[in-house]
Amino acid sequence: MTGWDRRGSRRARAAVALGCLLALASAACTGPEGTPPPADGGRAAEGPIVVASGLDVTGSGSVRQQLVEEWNRQHAGSPAKQAKLVELPGGADQQRSQLLGALQSGSARYDVVNLDITWIPEFAEAGLISPMPVDGTGTGTGTGSGSGSASEDDIDFIREVHATTVWKGRSYARPFNTDVGLLYYRPDLMAKADMKADKQPTAKWTWDHLYSSVKTLGVNPARPGDLAGWTTQLKDYEGLTVNTIEAFASVGVELTDGEGHYVSDAGELKKGLDELFDRVEDGRVPPGASTSDETASLTDFAEGRAVFLRHWPYAYKALGHLMEPDEYSVNRLPGKSVLGGQNLAVTADSPRAADARALITFLTSEKSESCLLDAGFAATRASSYTSTPAPCWPRVAAALRPAGDSPKAAGTGAPGEGAPKEQGAAAREAYIRTLGAVLGEAVQRPRTPYYGAFTQLLQSRVHGLLAAGRPDTAEAAATLDDALRDVFAGR
User: Fold this and answer.
1) Handedness of CA 233, 237, 240, 242 (dihedral sign)
2) What range defines the domain where residue 214 resides?
């Protein structure tokens, strides 16, 4: 696996009869299957604290890397506390497979893993990550965990976001950066259609309002490049799962309870599928929407091929590089929005568990969360969305300044050449308020240790239905119901 740090062995076991094969003068040796991991300090804690994470999607100068470097500066006198970020290539599904393989086999030495929120039950159930201790120091289970006491620091995490760290009553991680669906729109294209201000999105907008606006715009895309009413991510990947769950949740369809047991039925699934197909019927989305991911849908929106866009918070900052400030705006997504994001967990056999937890506490601190929000991620703390959030670490903030964004000339308010054309302070404040409110009301995808199998099933079934046009949703729901019963039972 590219980028793995192979220095040091995962387990040192005198009982390993056959020893380990060496590769490039470095080996990863594992003990007999089922052997319990050593306690913290049970083997030599050599080298840095290694953090495994997916790629930074914000294009912000890698705020995660900058935060790790800030930790290293603050611990410059302690070589054992230095940290190293390893970024895993590929999409979410590939990263999950790489991490599972690495932690199960011991082929990579990671102390901290940055996990997609949907992976927490699977990694916890498999014993690959350690529960966070309940000690009142900010590393306890936190609010909504179902057990233990919450420190004041834990309580600052947005309740729904913190709940993504919990499995079977215990917290296994801390929220690092979160995500949630938002609605972006093109006021310039709406103005060309003489749409009044009261037609623009408000906090009470519904999908019927959006459909009405699409009708007023008079769009009916038939060919690639035609103007569409809205666009989203309908490719056969995790984005399609998210869009499907948002449609299901908007009409009250839940697939599982808090412990991953299937609670739906064919009738409920039909209701959810009908809602999804209402959203993406012909004449509303681009002809190529079924192959669209985050990048393609953002490009269609920025280049004027769609008036409305469902996307994640990082798109707000990205649009500053692609569009004029008055060409886009953002508000709540009609209906329910699904949570995304990543949580930081300590691997079960890390010999540096105490230092790893201290690093996680730093990376999820108020100042660090402010840095993540400034870079384009959604912060996980409620205090980040107040009028007086903690400032980002100064050296991190300086490192994240876009190339060419020199200090503004006195009285001009103009950024240096090369800086993105971001919206003004009032628009950004409105965006931050909206983001904070939506996060507090967002819903989770199914909580299950079988999430990988679930999402692959849902993606393939729904994508096939999209290709068929408007299918018989009653028949589709019945077959999907049978398949979901099996997948959530681990069959």
Assistant:
1) negative
2) 182-338+443-488
